[in-house]
């Protein structure tokens, strides 16, 4: 989709200013001074989530606000002594996600390295303590979750894409239903294998290496290695990216598939837009170009209000159903970063423009209909403020 010719530089500057102002309001209203982080939505999401707070930090840094550093510090408050980083710190009573008290026993994509880099680029140099926490968290991932050269998850929560159709083969149905998925999530939770210290380490039914999780982790390793001057981490990131290319590239879809180790089936190849994110780390420019061009292809992910999560050509595509088609601001940010990383600045700018327009139309919603821009889920949701960083 090409940029509307009526959108000149002045129009884009005005859009950017309005989005920045709106993002600042959303973050400020979500901010809890005593806790040092934003609650994504006071009613629907009153806890701290790992990657939500990382996107908050990226947005804070884009706005020139030092609260980005405080938000990242809050992310690591729940870190275990062995380095494991929980995906939640509970803000009020909720059902526990594992045996750990006060925090989840599962993790989430390691976006913290990208957030630390965003802070450094904005003039908020990360402290040695934050850098050490990030290195220990990545060390725990490589220690506990590396299988055949790829990082695995043991629950869909850990991918961040909770009810993605890529998990349908495990669920046994392609028809999404909240009660079915809630039952599935809790059944997986009951059978998870936890370490003596309480973190999830294995599962008898669900072990998978998601393409997007591995891409974010590969980028995190190389980014952190460059930040701290550690060539070993840079090498680990590049090795993970190379293994992902070798094991997961799907030439028919021109995307990266997920790799199932336990359970699963054909759903790991369903064309979802997060499957284009390994463009941020692949050593193969041709693969990156083939995947990224689909983000603005109207027959695939390209839509008037930013990339669809599920390709339009997929029979189960539904623009208003949770994880079955709506656009997601945090994934759009990562897609734009992937495009910039590959030298495709016009594509990154286009994704940014569409996302900003959608955020305003959707009221900084959790996600939105990519065809109409109508807000869906929690409204506002603070991670939508990351549009200010695009």
| Average of the residue pLDDT scores | 96
| Weakly predicted, low-confidence segments | 1-6
Major sheet description: 2 strands, antiparallel
Number of helices: 12
Radius of gyration: 19 Å
Terminal CA distance reads 18 Å
Side by side, the strands of the main sheet go: 1-2
Order of helices and strands: HEEEHHEHHEEHHEEEHHEEEHHHEE
Question: Which geometry do the CA atoms define?
Answer: globular
Number of strands: 14
Short descriptors:
two-stranded antiparallel sheet; 42% helix; mainly alpha; single chain; disordered N terminus
Question: Can you tell me about this structure?
Answer:
The chain is mainly alpha-helical. Helices cover 42% and strands 8% of the residues. The strands form 7 sheets. It has a two-stranded antiparallel ribbon. The protein is globular and about 55 Å long. The chain starts with 8 loop residues before the first helix and ends in a 14-residue tail after the last strand. Mean pLDDT is 96; it is low at 1-6.
């Amino acid at each position: 989709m090409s940029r509307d010719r009526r959108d000149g530089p002045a129009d884009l500057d005005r859009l950017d200013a309005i989005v920045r102002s709106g993002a600042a309001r959303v973050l400020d209203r979500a901010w809890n001074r005593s806790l040092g982080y934003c609650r994504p939505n006071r009613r629907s999401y009153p806890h701290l989530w790992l990657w939500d707070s990382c996107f908050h930090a990226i947005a804070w840094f884009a706005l020139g606000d030092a609260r980005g550093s405080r938000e990242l510090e809050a992310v690591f408050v729940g870190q275990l002594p062995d380095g494991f980083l929980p995906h939640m710190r509970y803000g009020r009573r909720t059902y526990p996600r594992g045996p750990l008290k006060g925090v989840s026993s599962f993790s989430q994509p390691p976006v913290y390295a990208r957030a630390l880099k965003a802070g450094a680029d904005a003039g908020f140099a990360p402290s040695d303590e934050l850098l050490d926490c990030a290195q220990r968290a990545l060390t725990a991932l490589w220690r506990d979750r590396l299988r055949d050269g790829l990082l695995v998850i043991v629950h869909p929560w850990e991918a961040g894409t909770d009810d993605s159709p890529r998990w349908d083969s495990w669920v046994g149905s392609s028809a999404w239903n909240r009660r079915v998925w809630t039952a599935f999530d809790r059944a997986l939770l009951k059978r998870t294998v936890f370490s003596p210290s309480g973190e999830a380490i294995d599962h008898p039914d669900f072990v998978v290496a998601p393409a997007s999780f591995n891409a974010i982790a590969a980028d995190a390793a190389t980014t952190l290695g460059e930040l701290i001057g550690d060539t070993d981490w840079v090498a680990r990131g590049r090795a993970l990216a190379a293994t992902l290319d070798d094991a997961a590239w799907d030439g028919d879809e021109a995307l990266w598939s997920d790799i199932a180790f336990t359970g699963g089936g054909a759903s790991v190849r369903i064309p979802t837009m997060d499957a284009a994110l390994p463009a941020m780390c692949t050593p193969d420019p041709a693969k990156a170009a083939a995947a990224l061009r689909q983000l603005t292809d109207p027959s695939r992910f390209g839509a008037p209000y930013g990339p669809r999560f599920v390709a339009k050509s997929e029979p189960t595509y539904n623009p208003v159903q949770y994880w079955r088609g709506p656009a997601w601001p945090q994934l759009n940010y990562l897609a734009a970063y992937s495009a910039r990383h590959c030298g495709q600045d016009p594509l990154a700018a286009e994704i940014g423009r569409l996302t900003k327009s959608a955020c305003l139309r959707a009221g900084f919603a959790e996600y939105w209909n990519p065809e109409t821009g109508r807000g869906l889920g929690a409204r506002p949701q603070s991670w939508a403020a990351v549009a200010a960083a695009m």
